[in-house]
User: Fold this.
Amino acid sequence: FACGLKACASVGDLERGRHMHVNILDEGLATDVAVGNMLVDMYSKCGALSEAREAFDELHHKSIVSWTSLITGYAENGPCLEALRCFEQMQSDGLSPNAAILSSVLRACGSIGAIHKGRSIHTTLSQYEFGKDPLVSNGLISMYANCGSLVQAQEVFDQMEVQDVSTWSTMIKGYGVNHEGEMAVKCFHDMLKQGVSPDAVTFTCLLTACNHSSLVDEGWAFFKIMREDYGIVPIVEHDVCMVSLLAKSGHLYEAEMFLERLCSSSQRTWAALLGACKTYGEEQLAFRCFQRLIQINPNVAAWYVLMKDIYTNAGRHDDALMIEKLRIQSKTIKKPASALIEVDKELHEFFVSDFQTKELSLMMRSLNSKLKDEGHLLNVDAVLKPVNDEEKEVALCEHAERLAIAFGLLHTPQGHTLHVTKNLRMCNDCHNAGKTISRITQREIILRDDSCIHHFNDGLCLCKDMF
Ligand code: ZN
Ligand code: ZN
Assistant:
């Protein structure tokens, strides 16, 4: 059974894994240590995290192996905050982490912008004999880069004795997600000079970098040498990057043609094109993408939300309402928007209109009036609820990331950089507000959403409004 579960995990066959679980229960073998651990691992690797947690809770003896499966699962596939909670629980149970756990926890810190937590783990690494393990160092690079601290990421990189292909790839991606495309390209050339050969992941990182910095010619060139010089067959990740790169740089129809030429286009590639249509207000192409997408899978709320936003921005309110109705009919549930901010090494989570304290509500009011004075016009059309304009303004100003920023301004000293993470793509209005807030409060705000990392500084964002 343990071997069977391992096989299910490696090919991601959740259904077969569940079936095997039933057989295991019938045979009364669920209490076996090896089988129990493998159940946690299988569910975790297949992304079924609540089932992984149940299997974990059933274990009589929770070893480092069991914790590794659970924490890695949370860090890679799910609520990263949960990975950190498990890590703390594991330590309070008296267990010491291994390299795989530390690497996962560091990556989780990066995903949610928990730079202080990540940094405090960094300071403890010297106490472990595996503290210099490349797995851990790569986790550190990824953590710093995802928190927008490229200088520290580069420092960790430089201190490593040997940089293997995954270290280089992590660094390339780090520059890429922070809109430093040219540095990412330079990093790639340095890697070749060192005699390290790129793999499929390196090209994903490189194309991601080209995508975030709109390097179209470079992107095409890398896509070409990937196949011709390195014999790497493009996988869906590469296609997603290319579509997104072409589309975001305004070559929307070229992106559509690229997609039409692929034998099997996936939902992620069409979703990338739909996302870009929002930036350029291309309603017709957007609707073609949307139709493709709901044919492939009608149950993803994000697509309805994007299409609705595109119609709303174009002033086509009836069509926007029609899309909203379609979403309700399809019974897809919108992921609730939430934002996280780390203050005093504690993570605080906010939801829409989640004021939490009187103080925060006052802070929001004062910020909004300052934004108004600065001529920040609220895009009231972005709110579709049938309310009057004043109420719409209120609803917009209460987006989770706005609350997190206000909370950060309240509870950190002047000059302190704010690190915020948003689980969905931020709206244009919050993006504009972020830029203005960075200028009027003289604060650097690093906000990671599900499309890229935004660096708001002195009224500008490094993404140059392309997200
Ligand atoms: Zn917003
Ligand atoms: Zn931005």
User: Anything to note?
Assistant: Residues 431, 454, 461, 463, 467 surround zinc ion (ligand 2) (CB under 6 Å). Residues 10 and 85 are 26 Å apart (CA to CA). Strands lie at 338-343, 346-351, 418-422, 445-448, 453-457, 460-461.
